[in-house]
Amino acid sequence: MDGEAPNVSRFHYLDSSEMHPIVEEALAEKGDRAREAWIALFRNRALQLIRKGSSLAIAAEAAVLNRHLFSPAGRAIQQENPVYHARIATIADMLTQAGQRTDAAFLGAVMSSHKAYAKRIVEALAEAGEHGLPRRDLLTMLDIQESHLSHVLRALEKADVIARHRRPGFKEVRVVLGSAGRDLIEEKILPEWFTRMEQFIADATQGTVPEAHTVTESLEQANVPSRLMASRINNLVAVVADAKAVVGTRS
Asked: Is the dihedral of CA 148, 152, 158, 164 positive or negative?
């Protein structure tokens, strides 16, 4: 059976939490061309997450696929078209394996044993973005021996804190964050609640004053450490907004 392929491009960057009806629709698809389009979508999303996403985001995507693959409807599709079901299951398995977190004790031991350099490397790579940094830049920044840097990078790579690769057409080795490194940024070094706080303060300096409950709810959704901290941040945003208003009346 064949038919017109659906336009799946609008689903490439949806959050995993929004993918449930999409996966359900894909599993119910009957046309060969349409099925190929859905397979391409799930494969491209998986590769994008494995390359750039945290292990939590990767695991969330795998969970969505697995939930529908092994639902009653998914089992029915498995009986009707085992090849189609298996191709999607292969993508889910790839995500599941990639999303398995590095053992916390091992990761902690690696970061601790190289504490003079590990955190600086992770922060520098976070600042550099998705393309990371040339290895020679890290050597210059850290001012250490070549052999010592190699030792540190090997340990961090083994813990999936960093990855090393060559971009097509370039000879230089570049160092980028691995999934465990991205998790460190999101959970400990530059957590989501902090970046949301920054945005609220920046908005306040421009005269945009969010409701106090909006700030609190947003920070709690981003796992701010405590309600007391959320309250203090609310106060800070209000102070900045008041200062902006005072300056505005004087000008």
From this structure: negative
